[in-house]
Specification:
The structure holds three protein chains of three kinds. Chain A is mainly α. Chain A has a domain of 43 residues: Histone, subunit A, CATH 1.10.20. Helix content of chain A is 31%, strand content 7%. In chain A, strands 1-2 form a two-stranded antiparallel sheet. In chain A, strand 1 and strand 2 form a beta hairpin. Chain A starts with a helix and ends with a strand. In chain B, helix 12 packs across helix 15. Chain B is elongated and about 95 Å long. The mean pLDDT of chain B is 91. The chains are: A mainly alpha, B alpha+beta, C alpha/beta.
């Protein structure tokens, strides 16, 4: 599978990462080399194999519904009247 | 018309879905911690009670429920999403293929657990409150089987009952999808409509808007709308772009968790529909049964009272509810108890007090509990069925109200009610109304024939 | 340069097995009140208000915390060059220290009686440990709580230790291990003292695919180590890890990058870290703030977003998870024949710093060849120094850390 420039820009936009015009060609080549290596996976016969989300079997306990009286969590970033300030929605 | 709903129910837990922050109302950004603020290094843990409530809700809605919880990350960038991904259940929702009967069968596609994003207050600036971030939600998605706003209302009434019966709040928001036949079912979505009433209004408003557009030969734009609850109107939020790519992965911070067997097997409380069926089998009229079973606490009190079902149903439906509504109280807030209500209804049933007296007693009992028997004795409220006494009072009333008598004799039926009221008043409301009427009619007939 | 980028002097809250030992933490591990940047500009100014679980454990066992150590940005790197610190190998300063837990290895090597707490996703503990000639132990996945670890890839990240002696390494790993209710991926097992290991009795396996293509220095050091083991009467067997040799790198990277691209989404200039102009539309705001990512981070975020996009997700993300199952099975099968697996930790000596400038991303990723498989499978692994800047990797089955240390004790 080879990434096109358009696909690269789509993915960059989706992940809110900026690639400058100068970076694009080199990025494209480097990424395509990596994707070529990823494509090796298609050689493996995985019929009937279930995915391993974790490498060992884990049986976590569910948490009891008890609210914790919190020490005030340190808040950073710009705030106003107790609210966090964020970028424009328009 | 085809309507599909994506409903978000806030579950009734003390702590959030993935962290130990409290879920109570609080000043902005005070029920927050490193987990729901998305601070690097924090990790989610799953709230057991949220799982219990969502599992019971799924079972009450006839969903096929999975044995395991599998969580996914839904990635998108928005200022209200503290991690810029939402922990939800994409690949394997908790339940599939449910249904609600509301004037027809409404199929439910899926139900799953997910966390609420934060709340954005829009002023000139974007202000964000993370108290809501991480609140536990159950999302229910319907198939577009709802065919009218009326059916939508019945559907939501049913859902609301189930939520209240399971003690899950009925704090709901919905994304509403509406399409009409006239446009070939071109679909528009109204996002984030809060509350059952507004959901119904939004459906009506949107259907109207679409009909008008078709009449004016306008194309139905495939857009996303918002609902303005103050203006009671839809507004365009954005033209729908191609489906956002959410890049789902299984959440690697949350292994597959087995749902506790007791949640899957624990007996559900008897729900509204089952109560209605049971009451109607006992002879209670359907409309009475429906109204009583609307509220689980009223239904419970109803069942505790040992009386003829048809009789007590009539009193509950008409008097108990009236008195509660008038005082703006729920049954649990009122002073009604099994003892005092039982007493009053029994006295009426046994003909020991008048219906009118019974109603007045309930009006008092809703705000103050007292010994009913004692009160009836002290205030001399027992029914008078001494026909001699009633005859005497009737004669006196007729003697002192010639003009009313004459009105009746010249054909005015209303005068009869007036005279009846006077006799009742003279006996301080205690005389048996049937005997009064009998006497009155008899005396008046005698006069007529004179 | 001793690898420490933020100094501190946090006294322990109780005496214990680490009394008198100084401890450092890789910068991605949260220590309350100390900056945690993961060597990234996008986390400048972030000071966690909570301790990672392993930090609490260290403080309650007598450890004194002297600082945070340098690393490759977010763990992205195999040489220690993906950061702004100009790190050098303490054994040969013209060479790289390895990565991504570069500072940890430098500290373990240069500071006396020091325990460096580090983190591994694809080999980031044993790689720099081998290159800097110290002991490095990475536990079974789930053995040590990840609470307070700034994520690279959640199903692969493991916190582990480095030190100058086998005993301190084993003691340190024991202290930080244990079930944690704040980490849903933490396993619940009874406590074990890994430093109390018996003499190893069993068969060691050498995967033939992992001893081809070694540089001459590494080949020689490994052969000497084999001879030493044989002279102690240990039986050594040839085994094959063909699937892992060919597919562990792609499977590891697809999974790691898919997970990390979602982990790095939260870095968007809200609530912590460098901020930008709030008048910007949010998409532009986020993109502007995320200019603070280094080039490698951008690369990995883009790749990881691609591998889980609709249309590609089946072929890459889901496929890699399935291949992972087969790769783990291959290791499990091997452990039926042998008690532990040994091979060089890295195929080459640490490269000269100047030679790394022109390596392509895929060439760097391929450096993880000998460590990706064990990390993907969550197996416990230990590197012991066997030559100048050469280490030998010892891998045992899940939760067999004591056996792993007993093999280390043979050398």
């Amino acid at each position: 599978m080879k990434l096109s420039k358009e696909l690269l820009f789509d993915v960059a936009r989706l992940s809110r990462v900026n690639i400058s015009n100068e970076e694009t060609d080199q990025f494209l080549d480097e990424l395509n080399d990596v994707v070529k290596a990823f494509d090796l996976l298609s050689e493996v016969d995985t019929k009937g194999v279930s995915p391993s989300l974790h490498p060992v079997k884990i049986t976590p306990k569910l948490r009891e519904d008890k609210p914790e009286v919190k020490k005030k969590t340190a808040l950073f970033g710009e705030m106003e009247d107790g609210y966090f300030v964020g970028p424009s929605l328009k | 018309m085809k309507v599909g709903l994506e409903i978000h129910v806030t579950l009734n837990t003390k702590s959030k879905l993935f962290c130990t922050c409290s879920t109570t109302n609080a000043l902005p950004n005070t029920n927050v911690c490193e987990v729901c603020l998305g601070f690097p290094g924090s990790k989610p843990t799953v709230n057991k009670e949220a799982v219990r409530q969502c599992t019971l809700l799924a079972r009450a809605l006839n969903f096929t429920v999975k044995n395991n919880l599998v969580f996914s990350r839904k990635s998108y960038f928005y200022p209200d999403l503290s991690k810029n991904y939402q922990i939800t259940q994409f690949e394997e929702p908790l339940g599939v293929n449910g249904s609600i009967i509301a004037d027809g069968n409404i199929r439910l596609k899926r139900i799953h657990l997910e966390e609420d994003p934060a709340q954005i207050i829009r002023n000139n600036k974007t202000l964000i409150d993370y108290n809501r971030s991480g609140m536990p939600l159950a999302e229910i998605v319907t198939e577009p089987d709802i065919k009218s706003a009326e059916q939508a209302r019945l559907f939501m009434n049913k859902l609301s009952r189930i939520l209240k019966y399971l003690n899950i709040t009925d704090n709901v928001k919905a994304d509403v999808n509406v399409s009409i036949k006239e446009s070939g079912y071109s679909r528009c979505e109204i996002k984030n409509v809060t509350g059952f009433k507004d959901i119904e209004r939004a459906i009506i408003s949107e259907a109207k808007r679409q009909k008008k557009a078709v009449e004016n030969n306008e194309k139905i734009q495939n857009a996303t709308y918002g609902w303005d609850p103050l203006k009671q109107k839809t507004y365009v939020m954005r033209l729908k772009e191609s489906e956002a790519d959410y890049g789902y992965i299984y959440d690697p911070d949350l292994p597959i968790i087995k749902i506790p067997t007791q949640f899957l097997k624990e007996k559900l409380p008897e729900l509204s529909d089952e109560k209605i069926a049971r009451y109607t089998k006992q002879g209670v009229p359907l409309s009475d049964a429906d109204i009583i079973a609307q509220d689980k606490d009223i239904a419970e009190l109803f069942e505790q009272i040992n009386l003829d079902p048809v009789f007590k149903a009539k009193w509950f439906r008409r008097e108990i509810l009236r008195v509660l509504n008038y005082n703006n109280q729920t049954i649990l807030q009122s002073k009604f108890t099994k003892e005092n209500v039982s007493k009053v209804l029994n006295l009426v049933y046994e003909n020991k007090i008048n219906e009118a007296v019974g109603k007045k007693l309930l009006e008092k009992l809703v705000v103050e509990d007292f010994d009913v028997e004692k009160h009836v004795k002290e205030h001399d409220l027992l029914k008078i069925d001494d026909s001699d006494l009633i005859k005497k009072v009737t004669a006196e009333v007729l003697k002192n109200n010639n003009s009313a008598v004459n009105d009746y004799l010249s054909g005015e039926q209303k005068a009869l009610n007036f005279l009846f009221g006077l006799v009742m008043r003279q006996t301080k409301g205690k005389a048996d109304p049937g005997i009064i009427r009998e006497n009155l009619q008899a005396e008046l007939d005698k006069l007529k024939s004179k | 340069m001793n690898g420490i980028v933020t100094s501190s002097n946090m006294k322990p809250i109780a005496k214990g097995v680490l009394s008198g030992v100084t401890v450092s933490f890789k910068d991605c591990i949260c220590v309350k009140g100390l900056p945690a940047q993961s060597s990234s500009k996008i986390l400048k100014g972030y000071i966690p208000s909570f301790n990672a679980t392993c930090v609490e454990k260290i403080l309650s066992q007598g450890g004194t915390i002297i600082g945070k150590t340098a690393q490759d940005e977010f763990g992205f790197g195999s040489f220690g060059i993906n950061n702004s610190y100009d790190l050098k190998n303490p054994v040969d300063p013209t060479r790289v220290p390895g990565g991504s837990s570069s500072g940890s290895a430098i500290a373990a090597k240069t500071i006396k009686n020091h325990l460096a707490i580090a983190e591994s996703t694809g080999g980031s503990i044993v790689n720099p440990a081998a290159f800097c000639q110290v002991f490095g132990a990475c536990p079974t996945y789930g053995r040590v709580s990840r609470y307070g670890l700034i994520d690279y890839a959640n199903s692969l990240d493991k916190i582990g230790v480095m030190a100058n002696t086998l005993e301190l390494t084993a003691k340190g790993l024991t202290v930080i291990s244990g079930n944690c209710s704040k980490d849903s991926t933490s396993v619940d097992l009874p406590a074990e003292d890994f430093s109390k290991f018996e003499t190893f009795k069993g068969i060691l396996g050498v995967p033939k695919e992992y001893v081809e293509n070694l540089s001459p220095e590494v080949k020689q050091a490994f052969q000497l180590a084999i001879e030493k083991l044989k002279s102690k009467g240990i039986q050594i067997k040839n085994i094959s890890l063909a699937l892992n040799a060919k597919y562990s790198i792609p499977s590891y990277y697809v999974i790691a990058l898919s997970e990390t691209s979602t982990n790095l989404a939260k870095y968007s200039g809200l609530r912590y870290g460098p901020q930008s102009d709030f008048k910007l539309h949010y998409n532009d705001y986020f993109t502007k703030v995320r200019q603070n990512f280094g080039v490698e981070a951008k690369r990995r975020v883009i790749l990881g977003t691609f591998t889980r996009m609709a249309g590609y997700r089946s072929a890459y993300y889901i496929k890699a998870l399935k291949v992972r199952t087969l790769l783990i099975e291959e290791y499990k099968k091997a452990f039926k024949q042998v008690s532990a697996i040994i091979h060089p930790t890295m195929p080459i000596l640490p490269p000269k710093i100047k030679d790394t400038k022109n390596l392509s991303p895929i060439e760097i990723y391929n450096m993880d060849l000998l460590t990706a498989g064990v990390n993907l499978a969550g197996l416990p692994h230990l590197t012991v120094p066997i030559g100048e800047m050469v280490g030998m990797l010892i891998t045992t089955n899940h939760f067999e850390e004591r056996k792993m240390f007993s093999v280390g004790g043979l050398l």
